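The instructor's notes for this session suggest beginning with a concrete chain rather than abstract definitions. Hand out the sequence below and ask the class to guess, before any prediction is shown, which regions might be ordered.
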Amino acid sequence: MSARLLLRLLVLAPLLLLPGLGRAADKPDPLAVREITLKAAALLAEQGADAARPQFHAMGEFRFGEIYVNVIDLNGAWVIYPPVPRNEGKSVLNVTDSDGKLLVKEIIKVAEDQGEGWVEYRWLNPASNRIEPKLTFVKRVPGKNLIAYVGLYRP
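After discussion, reveal the predicted structure:
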């Protein structure tokens, strides 16, 4: 191994250990999506939305690649929406997927009836610019009127 290649590896190796880096290229699986959602819900339960917001907006363990944490209230308003923060506070209650499915109402139903679970729908994937199946894990935040969820495209 050349000295130049060894130097590059020594410089780049620590970057792969940072949250979110190294995972972005690898598509997370449903188990990882569930774990991120549960961790986000626990953080929201402990700290509240205002304190958790900066962590969800920043690149890192809660936001990398196509992964980010959404938070809505039980009325269907976005509380935290990292891709477009200016939309926080807006109602998304009647948002439908490409097949007309009222997906936010289903997210709320799963959270209220089961506490947590999976919701499937079809959504425009910005990476491929195609409508693709999306699988989202939903978790009602204990002690709060909030729902955390993370989605994963399934081509």
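Then share the key points. Residues 1-25 have pLDDT under 50 and may be disordered. The beta strands are 63-64, 67-68, 70-73, 78-80, 116-125, 130-140, 146-153.
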